[in-house]
Design goal:
Layout lengths: L1 H42 L3 H13 L5 H13 L3 H12 L6 H13 L3 H11 L6 H13 L3 H14 L3 H13 L3 H13 L4 H14 L3 H14 L4 H13 L3 H8 L2 H4 L4 H13 L3 H13 L5 H13 L3 H11 L6 H13 L8 H14 L3 H13 L3 H11 L6 H15 L16
Helix pairs in contact: 1-2, 1-3, 2-3, 3-4, 3-5, 4-5, 5-6, 5-7, 6-7, 7-8, 7-9, 8-9, 9-10, 10-11, 11-12, 12-13, 13-14, 13-16, 14-16, 16-17, 17-18, 18-19, 19-20, 20-21, 20-22, 21-22, 22-23, 23-24
Length: 435
Amino acid sequence: MLYFTLFFLLLIAGLISSQSRRTRKVRKEALERLHARIEEHLVLLEWESASRLLTRLRNEGRGDQRTDLLRVRLLRLRKECDKALELARYSINIHQDPRPFHRECGYALLELGHPQAAIDALELGSATPQTVEELTAYATALHEVGQPERALRLIEPHLLLSPTPHLLTLAADCHYLLEEFESALTLYHSAGKLGQETERLLERMGHCYRHLKQMGRGLECFQAIWESDPLNLGAVLNLGGCLEAIGAHADALALYSREATWNLGDPRLIARAGISAIHLERYSVGEVYLRYAISLGLKPPTYLAYLAYACERQLAWQEAEELYQELTTLPEGEAAGYLGLTYLFAIGVSSLNSEDEVLHIATRSVELHSQAISWELLSASLARLGYFVEAHQIQEALTPYDLLPEVSTRRRAAMRLLRQRQPLPAALLPHPLVA
């Protein structure tokens, strides 16, 4: 009787255990099916459907590590990266395998503009990228921290096996950063064939063509972007810059001056219009535009240099001199400032009266801009100070480098005057557009 009772109890326990295993298996399979449905919704960008299923799991207390991972992913895909990062960091401390959450931290940090922190998090997630998403994120972060060579070493093995538009564009961006523009162009074209966004590709390709001096091709790219959206400021500036580069300043000015474009009120647009006007010898118009752009807070050395040149051409010598003086105080404008001041003294319109100051400015100009024009202006400045022999020696030393007949003729006339101990007039000096 005792043996029968024990056997019966063991049989009941086994049945209960078996039923419990089957129940757990059913629950696990149901949870996996829900996870699969959630992932499908995420792939299809059906955020609300995915959110409802995740909320249901949480309310029923049926969540696990994969559920939390999907919650993080949903937040990230919805661009709620701060919340995604917070949840991922919390999940690292409560789940047995923290690596997926480290990777999610990396993705979120990259979206939030912290590429170095993203690299650190991704490396905690895995020593080497395991998926295309992880590879793309890691390579993007490397590109953004200025390590395009490392990014390319990661990307290139995958380009032949499983190229995606994003990977191709990223590889092209790395080549662009390395100034390997032909390689970049090839990859941008390949990305375009796979359906990558057209406007960004056209812009990048346009810049590549400009760097390769293929201005016509670059112009076509920027023209296509502008035609699709005439009020796109970047498209206007890029197209205008390309027109300026090929010397089509009238077309550039017409582009910048279109009423709809002008009403954008961007100081860069106004300044570029001023520069185009100056190239067209419309100096008073160029001056007005540049002064207005500068008054709006845009004051790069290039604009000051063009403004000084416009003042010169209108014989506003004092204003030009003040602008050149200002340029000498700016690291990026120092060479232009000293060259402009030297020119003004060389033609006899400068307010400078200290020989030491003049020699300092002229020699500093040569140090910063050691080209023929700087030496010619140094020669003319020395002549103004009465050092005709030294001025003649400089002109004589420059003679072997005269490649154009008109330059050779001008130099012979200058040397003839120096031998007569006369200063050089403006007509015998190059007039630098120091911008």
